[in-house]
Amino acid sequence: MIFDRALGYADATAAEACNVGDRLDLDIAGPKALGMRAVWVSTRVIPPGFAPPPDATIPSLQRLPEVLQPWLG
Predict the structure, then answer these.
(1) Is the terminal CB of the chain with fewer CB neighbours within 10 Å at N or C?
(2) Does residue 69 contact residue 16 with C-beta atoms inside 8 Å?
(3) Please, what are the domains in the chain?
């Protein structure tokens, strides 16, 4: 899986990483399956029954710093 490979290249654990993307099926479900945090960039509502949910949803990348800041502590 691409996320496993990225963690290896970064020499990071899933708990240390976060993925940001606009596709629930790829950008959220994949990282969450590995134990990573995931941020969904969207103004839509999560479809009923979608699991696992993203850790955060933001309308644009401009809001990303405020989501990441508490996780960096």
Answers:
(1) C
(2) no
(3) 2-72 (3.40.50.1000)
